[in-house]
């Protein structure tokens, strides 16, 4: 029924649709009936204090974790039944780089190329390394690189397979200004259009700058939603303090 | 084909990483050699005593060296925070299991290839026979098949180095007992027919452990 680009014939489906999502760990309810949609090409930022459930939400969207109840539909496919297919179109960047410190940057990227069936891996690695300005350090071991450089390579890792959706969980940790600029450029622009981006962050200013729409997650629920066109930083700060206490 | 290709990519990555650090093979091998030498001195002298206790010593050595090796299988992924990197890749969780199992199997075989000649020299026993090779291979497959599953289970616990042997040893006991019995018969020069029942048990456990571990692995690595 659905096309590879996530569109049904004649009907536009959202890139991400989250319906009644809950997640519990024992007696602790981390997410309580979360619902939202992200349109294709849209950048949505999720703000929230520590323990609000942001990382749990990203892990469920990334199919790392299964929800306790509710549904996540990505490009028209439910994560419960189509996890492998969905993962092909998703790139994940977190404050963890998912890179092996004993291997070189090239070996790490080559490993992920194999897992994602990336055609012509050498050319693709050189391409993404150039995007994050790390070409000269490709043959250095990850453990010898600075935190900022490792995070830039993490961006390269997430872009290797050309995902249409990027999930970012507080990716700016340890990034310098140059890396932030690279991140901004790399995450939003895709050949032939914009990527769909879901970003969680504590940094209100950066989140506001990178997104089209923002959500505030508090105690496992979406408590605030607004487009960034109609909100400035002071308005956001006010709303954030009001809803997160 | 995609399943195998991705599993081999994980194995290749583990080998490359081990080649750089040598932490699994070096520590397990050192342990194995120390155990063999210590037992040789403890039971030294009488060849009759040595030939009786040798199969047990051999499998105690391989079992605990193997646990050291298996302990590192997922700890490295956890310490480097890379397990989630594998989990977001477009492949089933079973690919991770297959890749990790194959890597651990290769590490165990390397340890055994180096330890067996030392064992042969110190205990003066005929370990270079098709029978011993068959028993060792069958027992190692069963050992690693279930050990990889428990290594993944233990990695999310705090005292993971202690948790793995506590969970794993009771389950793998049938493999160890069969291996000790079959090795004893092989070292005594008994024909294949005498070993057959033990080899059949080992083969059956290999199949059971591989199939069950394969099916339940995805639950083991869920948080």
Give a written overview of the molecule.
The complex is a heterodimer of chains A (245) and B (223). Chain A has 8 helices and 12 strands. Chain A is globular. The model of chain A is unreliable at 1-9 (pLDDT under 50). In chain A, strands 6-7-10-3-11-12 form a 6-stranded mixed sheet, with helices on both faces. With 245 residues, chain A is of the alpha/beta class. In chain A, helix 4 (121-131) crosses helix 5 (147-159) and helix 5 (147-159) runs parallel beside helix 6. In chain A, strand 11 (213-218) and strand 12 (221-227) form a beta hairpin. Chain A has a single domain (41-63, 86-244), classed as Rossmann fold. Chain B is mainly α and 223 residues long. Chain B has helices at residues 2-21, 23-42, 47-79, 83-87, 93-123, 130-154, 160-187, 192-220. The mean pLDDT of chain B is 92. The A-B interface holds A 59, 62-66, 84-85, 87-88, 90, 92, 94, 96-103, 107, 111-112, 114-117, 141, 157 and B 2, 5-6, 9-10, 12-13, 16-17, 20-21, 80-82, 84-92, 222-223.
Q: What's this, in brief?
A:
The complex is a heterodimer of chains A (245) and B (223). Chain A is α/β, with parallel strands linked by helices and 245 residues long.
What is the first-to-last residue Cα distance of chain A? 45 Å
Number of domains as seen in the coordinates of chain A = 1
Q: Quick one: which chains have the greatest interface? A: A-B, 30 and 25 residues
- Tally of strands of chain A: 12
Sum up the overall morphology of chain B in one term.
globular
- Multimeric state: heterodimer
Shape of chain A: globular
Total helices of chain B: the number is 8
- Give average pLDDT of chain B, whole number: 92
Proportion of β residues of chain B? under 5%
- Main β-sheet description of chain B: none
Largest sheet of chain A: 6 strands, mixed
Question: If classified by CATH, what would the architecture of chain A be?
Answer: 3-Layer(aba) Sandwich
Write down the overall mean pLDDT of chain A: 89
Poorly predicted runs of chain A are: 1-9
In which order are the strands of the major sheet of chain A placed? 6-7-10-3-11-12
Which CATH top level class of chain A fits? Answer: Alpha Beta
Which residue ranges of chain B are poorly predicted, with pLDDT under 50 across at least 5 consecutive positions?
A: none
Helix/strand order of chain A: EEEHEEHEHHHEHEEEHEEH
Using only C-alpha atoms, the radius of gyration of chain A works out to 18 Å
Tell me the CATH superfamily of chain A.
P-loop containing nucleotide triphosphate hydrolases
